[in-house]
């Protein structure tokens, strides 16, 4: 059943620089995690997306990005799905 | 804070989220300040496997189609800049 | 110590939207610590409601999947999320729309509190 989802997550993780991704539903429950990402982070990622939605409720869902010197986390919500992608960056 | 190109407003908050200074579209925008403080509070709980907690975050950006918010923590203050995105400019985040 | 724990729980309560109440009880549902808003339904705070968790996890362990860790009950307007920290039980009462995953992720944050409380309970 989740074969397709796993394939998508694998595809994401195979992108250059990406070392993990996590997908969660509207309740923050984990649908899947791939690579170096834990299933527990799904709740926080959904919470961040929900919080960002409050910033401009009328606009479309923004892309959230958290960065430090080596890593980046990109969060995007699409309907009831929230996706978090962990990436390593080199400046 | 000097005026950067495309900047449409900024906010400076203290650690508790109180507005210290502001200008432009974000002038005295406490609602934005609260939402962003809420997001900063959440970042401390992010995945300890993928993001070692000792590294922390330096920059938070929230990107819309034609504008974005960029948040930085510096000197125990939270700096928030709202920018419009020029399509000729490089977009900070692509997904 | 209790005051510190209470403050921490109060912080959690404010940060999560839709979270009505956090309750730490013993296995009989007798409250040790409670922080919450008045939105929490009275019935769900009663010891006889909370202690059914003990029975439920006993049944859960019969599935052959090992020890039951958490139990999520969703109702029309509420969710009740309980965590097995025996001899203690941690109960979260939230609205139906609350971020369940976020509550589950709190586990790492509350584990240190629970271990200190467990020690205190064992001593008395």
TrEMBL record, chain A:
<comment type="similarity">
    <text>Belongs to the LAMTOR5 family.</text>
</comment>
<dbReference type="GO" id="GO:1904263">
    <property type="term" value="P:positive regulation of TORC1 signaling"/>
</dbReference>
<dbReference type="GO" id="GO:0071230">
    <property type="term" value="P:cellular response to amino acid stimulus"/>
</dbReference>
<dbReference type="InterPro" id="IPR024135">
    <property type="entry name" value="LAMTOR5"/>
</dbReference>
<protein>
    <recommendedName>
        <fullName>Late endosomal/lysosomal adaptor and MAPK and MTOR activator 5</fullName>
    </recommendedName>
</protein>
<dbReference type="GO" id="GO:0005764">
    <property type="term" value="C:lysosome"/>
</dbReference>
<dbReference type="GO" id="GO:0005085">
    <property type="term" value="F:guanyl-nucleotide exchange factor activity"/>
</dbReference>
<keyword id="KW-0458">Lysosome</keyword>
<dbReference type="Pfam" id="PF16672">
    <property type="entry name" value="LAMTOR5"/>
</dbReference>
<keyword id="KW-0963">Cytoplasm</keyword>
<dbReference type="GO" id="GO:0071986">
    <property type="term" value="C:Ragulator complex"/>
</dbReference>
<dbReference type="GO" id="GO:0043066">
    <property type="term" value="P:negative regulation of apoptotic process"/>
</dbReference>
TrEMBL record, chain B:
<dbReference type="GO" id="GO:0005764">
    <property type="term" value="C:lysosome"/>
</dbReference>
<protein>
    <recommendedName>
        <fullName>Late endosomal/lysosomal adaptor and MAPK and MTOR activator 4</fullName>
    </recommendedName>
</protein>
<dbReference type="InterPro" id="IPR034601">
    <property type="entry name" value="LAMTOR4"/>
</dbReference>
<keyword id="KW-0458">Lysosome</keyword>
<comment type="similarity">
    <text>Belongs to the LAMTOR4 family.</text>
</comment>
<dbReference type="GO" id="GO:0071230">
    <property type="term" value="P:cellular response to amino acid stimulus"/>
</dbReference>
<dbReference type="GO" id="GO:0005085">
    <property type="term" value="F:guanyl-nucleotide exchange factor activity"/>
</dbReference>
<dbReference type="GO" id="GO:0032008">
    <property type="term" value="P:positive regulation of TOR signaling"/>
</dbReference>
<dbReference type="GO" id="GO:0071986">
    <property type="term" value="C:Ragulator complex"/>
</dbReference>
TrEMBL record, chain C:
<dbReference type="GO" id="GO:0032008">
    <property type="term" value="P:positive regulation of TOR signaling"/>
</dbReference>
<protein>
    <submittedName>
        <fullName>Uncharacterized protein</fullName>
    </submittedName>
</protein>
<dbReference type="InterPro" id="IPR015019">
    <property type="entry name" value="LAMTOR3"/>
</dbReference>
<dbReference type="GO" id="GO:0071986">
    <property type="term" value="C:Ragulator complex"/>
</dbReference>
<dbReference type="GO" id="GO:0071230">
    <property type="term" value="P:cellular response to amino acid stimulus"/>
</dbReference>
<comment type="similarity">
    <text>Belongs to the LAMTOR3 family.</text>
</comment>
<dbReference type="Pfam" id="PF08923">
    <property type="entry name" value="MAPKK1_Int"/>
</dbReference>
């Amino acid at each position: 059943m989740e074969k397709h989802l796993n394939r998508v997550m694998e595809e994401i993780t195979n992108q250059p620089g990406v070392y993990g991704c996590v997908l969660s539903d509207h309740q923050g429950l984990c649908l899947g995690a791939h690579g170096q990402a834990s299933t527990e982070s799904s709740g926080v990622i959904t919470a961040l997306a929900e919080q960002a939605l409050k910033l401009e409720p009328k606009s479309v869902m923004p892309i959230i990005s958290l960065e430090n010197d080596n890593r980046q986390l990109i969060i995007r919500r699409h309907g009831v799905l929230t996706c978090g992608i962990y990436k390593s960056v080199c400046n | 804070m000097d005026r950067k190109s495309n900047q449409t407003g900024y906010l400076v908050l203290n650690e508790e989220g109180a507005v210290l200074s502001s200008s432009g579209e974000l002038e005295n925008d406490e609602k934005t300040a609260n939402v962003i403080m809420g997001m900063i509070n959440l970042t401390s709980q992010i995945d300890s496997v993928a993001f070692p907690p000792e590294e922390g975050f330096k920059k938070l950006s929230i990107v819309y189609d034609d504008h974005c918010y960029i948040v930085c923590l510096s000197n125990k203050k939270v700096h928030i800049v709202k920018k419009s995105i020029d399509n000729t400019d490089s977009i900070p985040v692509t997904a | 110590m209790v005051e510190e724990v209470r403050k921490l729980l109060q912080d959690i309560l404010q940060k999560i939207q839709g979270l009505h109440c956090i309750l730490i009880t013993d296995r009989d549902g007798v409250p040790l610590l409670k922080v919450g808003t008045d939105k929490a339904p009275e019935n769900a705070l009663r010891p006889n409601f909370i202690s059914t968790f003990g029975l439920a996890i006993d049944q859960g362990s019969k599935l052959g999947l090992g020890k039951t860790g958490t139990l999520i009950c969703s109702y029309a307007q509420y969710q009740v999320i309980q965590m097995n920290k025996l001899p203690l039980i941690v109960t979260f009462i939230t609205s139906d729309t609350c971020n369940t995953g976020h509550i589950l992720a709190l586990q790492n944050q509350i584990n240190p509190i629970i271990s200190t409380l467990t020690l205190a309970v064992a001593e008395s």
